[in-house]
Amino acid sequence: VQLQASGGGLVQPGGSLRLSCAASRRTTSNNGMGWFRQAPGKEREFVAAVDWRGSNAISADSVKGRFTISRDNAKSTMYLQMNSLRPEDTAVYYCAAALRAVPSSRSGDYRYWGQGTLVTVSS
């Protein structure tokens, strides 16, 4: 599985962006998917994850109520809708696919990774 993340860019605080993650082939019932991010000088951290059907999602406390993860298996694409963006959300965002069907916050559960897309929140 190859993953291609897109949709990053420069946005002002309080603004919105939608990230997309396109998979190279139709995702299967084994593939939970997730978003992680890495800010300059910091370790990669979990953002949000969704199960194979898109019916069960989890997210980090720092983004709860602001970010929404979803997926469209017919299009082999996962999304991250980011609202009320803050400067501390600035990071490279990575999408990933796991070998397990349930959502996970652990990076070690993910087998496939996209190349990342940069999100910069600044006025």
Judged by helices, strands and strand pairing, the structural class is: mainly beta
Please estimate the helix content.
under 10%
Task: Please count the beta strands (DSSP E, at least 2 residues each).
Answer: 11
> Which word captures the global form?
globular
What string gives the helices and strands in order?
EEEEEEEEEEE
Supply the number of helical segments. 0
Largest β sheet strand count, sense and barrel closure: 7 strands, mixed
Average per-residue pLDDT, rounded, comes to 94
N/C terminus separation: 37 Å
| Amount of beta strand | over 45%
The low-confidence parts are none
Query: How much is the radius of gyration in Å?
Result: 13 Å
Report on the architecture of this protein.
0% of the residues lie in helices and 47% in strands. The protein is built from no helices and 11 strands. Strands 2, 4, 5, 6, 9, 10 and 11 form a 7-stranded mixed beta sheet that branches. The chain has a 4-stranded antiparallel beta sheet with strand order 1-3-8-7, with no helix packed on it. A hairpin with a 6-residue loop joins strand 5 (45-50) and strand 6 (57-59). The chain starts with a strand and ends with a strand. The model has no long low-confidence stretch (mean pLDDT 94).
Task: Describe the secondary structure blueprint for this structure.
Layout: E1 3-6, E2 9-11, E3 17-23, E4 33-38, E5 45-50, E6 57-59, E7 67-72, E8 77-82, E9 91-98, E10 110-113, E11 117-121
